[in-house]
């Protein structure tokens, strides 16, 4: 089978500063200021061409960060990601310029992707039609609601016909009718044998779409396998986690962070 994505030992470190002074000192001096925070710690997984992989995990587990690293929007701190084909990310806040109109954003994105003038003229009406933005298409994106931004992002990304489609929670902000239409479009992609990454808290949508599930916890891979195998385990985990007291949840988190530190120390 041909691989579409090969992610090897990806780590993403952010610096958390308690104030601006710390941020500036960190820029100016070799000594490190601020606290290291690892959004991803040694994440490896592979997707075959045609796979639909769902990323699941609690808030802050690293799903969006990993989606952004694969899309080439956020650089990894270490490790490597190989993507065979053109990846397109759909996320509520991704890649739109708020000062430009919807139409200008479409043209800019298509230009950046290397489309010719004629191809842009041909494709633009399809994108506008799909977005259902009507006359708002000529208004600046900063006047759009999050649902409208998501529609525009979705309309652009699915119509540029990427090899790999990465969808990060973009369906959760739109209305039901648009979500259904988008899910239909995603089904078409799947039938065409394209690769998809799907980030969502909706386990129902995961079941409908994904063949494989990557479960992240504190920036680490907790499990990776078929939907039938991993999703029930995650559902059971969520049920049990919900029953924990605040203190127990804190202790669970501390243990997770300790595991992360151990893993990172082993790697250094
Ligand atoms: N630019 C940044 N600077 C500092 N920390 C960041 C940055 N971006 C993300 N993080 C942190 O990295 C961690 C992972 O974030 P990410 O958005 O990937 O999680 P997620 O699993 O997608 O969460 P959610 O389900 O809430 O959307 C979080 O703790 C977040 O606060």
Give the CATH architecture of the domain at 3-85 and 197-267. Answer: 3-Layer(aba) Sandwich
Helix % is 40-55%
CATH uppermost class of the domain at 3-85 and 197-267: Alpha Beta
> What Rg is obtained from the alpha carbons, in whole angstroms?
20 Å
Strand content range: 25-35%
- Give the beta-strand count: 9
Number of helices: 9
Mean pLDDT: 89
C-alpha termini separation: 33 Å
Domain ABC transporter: 22-243
Protein name: Teichoic acids export ABC transporter ATP-binding subunit TagH
Family: Belongs to the ABC transporter superfamily.
Keywords: ATP-binding, Cell membrane, Membrane, Nucleotide-binding, Translocase, Transport
Compose a concise summary of this entry.
This protein is of the alpha/beta class. 44% of the residues lie in helices and 25% in strands.
Walk me through what this model shows.
By secondary structure, this protein is an alpha/beta fold. The protein has a domain at 3-85 and 197-267: Rossmann fold (3-Layer(aba) Sandwich). Helices cover 44% and strands 25% of the residues. The protein has 9 helices and 9 strands. The strands form 2 sheets. It has a 6-stranded mixed beta sheet with strand order 5-6-7-3-8-9, with helices on both faces. It has a 3-stranded antiparallel beta sheet with strand order 2-1-4, sandwiched between helices. Helix 4 crosses helix 5 (146-159). The two termini are 33 Å apart. Residues 14, 37, 39, 57, 59-65 line the site of adenosine-5'-triphosphate (ATP). Adenosine-5'-triphosphate is lined by residues 14, 37, 39, 57, 59-65.
